[in-house]
């Protein structure tokens, strides 16, 4: 069985959790507190970041985008019309472009700073950056998310799913990052009904169910977090 080293509120880890669930892959989940810098984990991924996938045929696959490619290379053909990275080369470029948009741009501008400030810092020792959150980071991230929602709405007004007519890694990456922000109650869903309806479709999928079970100690999710009709 595969092993996934992750953190419940690492958006990159959530992307892979959604992906393996869509593929019907069973994996043991091991929570990794990256700020602890465990030697055994650093041996799997010297960058010290989650997620990391371990399987029988390979010692470790580090990073969400590398894992996504690995999963497609090892399982993609067998998935047929459920393949998350399409066979057509041009379509693959668009999926990869959007995965990069959400894992890099949205991650850096919205989900990663909010998760770090509101969740990780609650549990990190002071000598490695723990402490009270920085309100300036909140303001920047909550401002940035607005144009990302507009971009999602723009894409869905032209397509059934973000990258085309079929669910793909692009949808799962975007939804994974949004789900972390949604838990914190920082997604202004009223600003774009089309983006909200797309997210409702994604989070209604069975692959999302285990994410709804995640909780931060001492911090309840937003009222709409697990609401499929929000």
TrEMBL record:
Alphabetized InterPro entries for the sequence: Glutathione-S-Trfase_C-like (IPR010987), Glutathione-S-Trfase_C_sf (IPR036282), Glutathione_S-Trfase (IPR040079), Glutathione_S-Trfase_N (IPR004045), GST_C (IPR004046), Thioredoxin-like_sf (IPR036249)
Domain GST N-terminal: 1-79
Classification via Pfam families: GST_C (PF00043), GST_N_3 (PF13417)
Transmembrane segments: none
Top-level taxon of origin: Bacteria
Domain GST C-terminal: 88-224
Oligomer and partners: Homodimer.
Classification via PANTHER family: GLUTATHIONE S TRANSFERASE D10, ISOFORM A-RELATED
Protein name, per record: Glutathione S-transferase family protein
Annotated source species: Flaviflagellibacter deserti
